[in-house]
Amino acid sequence: SQQGEEDPQALSIQEGENATMNCSYKTSINNLQWYRQNSGRGLVHLILIRSNEREKHSGRLRVTLDTSKKSSSLLITASRAADTASYFCATDSGNTGKLIFGQGTTLQVKP
Amino acid sequence: GAVVSQHPSRVICKSGTSVKIECRSLDFQATTMFWYRQFPKQSLMLMATSNEGSKATYEQGVEKDKFLINHASLTLSTLTVTSAHPEDSSFYICSANGGSGRGAADTQYFGPGTRLTVL
User: With an 8 Å Cβ cutoff, is B23 touching chain A?
Assistant: First the structure.
């Protein structure tokens, strides 16, 4: 079953612009992770944020977590055409490694 | 980082045949692996948790007799799709927890996926 929703489902921006994707979930979590998937390929782990953290950065990525609203956001700054991919959030509720994925956001960055 | 491989990367088979997909953790031991299925333009759906040395735990709605999972060693889990039908055509992805050996303990490492097409 899906843990939550992501919005937008699809996002199209110009190179250099920022892209923001949101993820909501339903149950309490231990951590939330963001993944990237190029078309027809496997998943690439981007960033993990724990339930006691509010914000995390990695390069051009910024992730926030609001456990009171059960939501997270992924910001990609200064986007590049190579950022074109699908982005998924996934929650781990039991520290078991068992992940429940959101619906995903398809990002297109136009050169 | 830790590496997980899958074999084969793509398979085409006739309806009614069985297909085995392997998932290996190449440079770390994984007592637990996970199998996901992804239909086109959809998200990943967790199918089952593969436990080394014991029976797999299946998610609700997943037929355990159709999707046989064997986790015979700390580096290998196999998923066998028995009597495959066209509706089983999908992208199957495994993951392993990096809790033992290299890799962060709470990071999942995903295989590259196996594209199954059943004719």
Answer: no
Phi and psi torsions of A15, nearest 5°: -55, 140
Which of A45, A97, A101 lies closest to B44 in CB terms? Answer: A101
Q: How far apart are CA B118 and CA B91, in angstroms?
A: 12
pLDDT tens digits, one per residue of A52-73: 999 999 999 999 999 999 999 9
Q: What is the pLDDT of residues A14-35, one digit of tens each?
A: 999 999 999 999 989 999 999 9
Residues 6 or more apart in contact with residue A72 via CB below 8 angstroms = A22, A23, A24, A25, A32, A34, A49, A63, A64, A65, A66, A89
If you measure CA to CA, which chain B residue comes closest to A88?
B43
pLDDT digits (tens, 9 = 90+) for B1-30: 678 999 999 999 999 999 999 999 998 888
Compare all CA atoms of chain B with the CA of A101 and give the residue at the minimum distance: B44
Which chain A residues have a beta carbon less than 8 Å from that of B109? 45
> Is-contact B66 B74, C-beta < 8 A?
no
